[in-house]
Amino acid sequence: MRDLKPGWPKWVLGALVATLLLPLLATFLYSISTRWGATLLPDGFTLDWYLKLWGDPRFLAAFGRSLLVCFATLLLGTLVLVPTVLVVDYYFPKLDPWMNLLILLPFAVPPVVSSVGLLQIYADGPLPLIGTPWILVGTWFTIVLPFMYRALANNLQGIPLKDLMDAAHLLGASSARAFAMVVLPCLRKGLLAALFLSLSFLLGEFVFANMLVGTRYETLQVYLYNMRATSGHFTSALVMSYFLLTLLLTWAANRFHR
According to the model, what pLDDT value does residue 8 have? Predict the structure, then answer.
């Protein structure tokens, strides 16, 4: 081991990064190629596949539906989880271990099994939600529950909550006003990071969307699945657009987290 040069970890890291980026680079080249047959490189390059993709009304509609459901889910998660985290941490700290167990329960049941049960319950009856975005909002809320709760709880543990609340009470503020004016601004970075990470994760959700709504409310992932039999150049452009969007959201989440 002493004979190894000091810079050898950089070569290993560089080789690993190159291995991971090679399929992505090949997909990108295929998405901008006019024709790629038996040659090492494409015969020509074009942006027509991206223009065709972003000019497709069906794609834009699926993309808009995905964003709409994602934003509705994140709004629901914020309205439910922010007060829950504050109440548990301030009034009932002994419930925190039980909450950590509760938020992991959605992962104990596979999405396929959950979808079959939801189909049996909401396919008809007084609440026929199958095929509507409302069923997606509810199921996607269970997906983001662990991410948002843990991010908010970790952020809250980094501030002196009891000291801030006691100081606000001494100045005459009620508990609700103290939470809104003092504690919530301290949770801004954790909440933004949780929202962006959850959004990038929800945009890739496929099982619930395909089984519970399908083409009746086609989302981005369902559109990608339905277009798999079209031109490989077109689907490669779609995959690259989705990857760049996810990368942008992840970068934004890391930026806000710092």
Answer: 64
